Amino acid sequence: MIPVYGQGFFTISYGIINYIIVFDYIDDKGEYRRIMGDRELIAKEENVLRENMQRLMDEERVIINSLEVRPVVEKAFIELRGSGKRVSITFYTSIPFKPNKGRNIYENFYESTIAEYPYRVYWIALPCIKIESIESPGLVIVNDNISLIQVDRGTRIDGYESVVFTIRDCPELDRQP
Q1: pLDDT under 70 in the chain at which residues?
Q2: Number of H helices and number of E strands within the chain?
Q3: Rounded to an integer, what distance in angstroms lies between the CA atom of residue 109 and that of residue 4?
Q4: Alpha carbon 131 to its chain's center
Q5: In the beta sheet, which residues pair with residue 21?
Q6: Which of 23, 45, 91, 147 has the lowest CB atom count within 10 Å?
Q7: Three-state secondary-structure class, residue 14
Q8: How far apart are CA 115 and CA 91, in angstroms?
Q9: How far apart are CA 19 and CA 45, in angstroms?
Q10: pLDDT score recorded for residue 172
């Protein structure tokens, strides 16, 4: 199945980027509806989905502050949305990194492609962190600590994204381990 829509929510905090990716599907064959009543089958399928997404993430090269880091897909969830044909698959992923006070750069290198479905990505920075710029395909709106990327179906994806963010001196951050 190819998603009909996607959303990503990236949260930048001190030393970790957590993100949630949600893909919406139309399941005309009812594959997921058939397993929803069986917790064991759901858990097995969610694990397969998590492993598959991890393999895809492993094909990407993610660099933060000139150091290669590895996104870790922690969990996948399947849910029906309103009807048995509307399915969402949600992935929870984390990227630990060594933060710099001042300028930090997240870079993601991956295979270029054409967007098969529309999607939105939200970058949210916690207090004392400011998003300075984003390089990404699609419409990019940078607004201090909440930014948006909107990509339409058919958009050329060049295989590179970057987010530049600044971590300011902050009493809350100084208490972090």
Answers
A1: 171-177
A2: 3, 14
A3: 24
A4: 16
A5: 8, 91
A6: 45
A7: coil
A8: 19
A9: 21
A10: 59
Integer Rg of the chain from CA: 17
Q: How far apart are CA 87 and CA 2, in angstroms?
A: 11
Token pair, residue 13, equals 């905090």
At 39, is the secondary structure helix, strand, or coil?
Answer: helix
Nearest to 63 by CA among 74, 71, 55: 71
Q: Are 125 and 12 in contact (CB under 8 A)?
A: yes
Cα(19)–Cα(6) distance, rounded to whole angstroms? Answer: 13
Q: Quote the tokens at residue 17.
A: 């980027």
Phi, psi of 32 (to 5 degrees): -80, -35
Rounded to whole angstroms, the Cα distance separating 37 from 93 reads 26
In a 13 Å sphere around the CA of 123, the CA atoms on its Cβ side amount to 26
What is the pLDDT at residue 115?
97
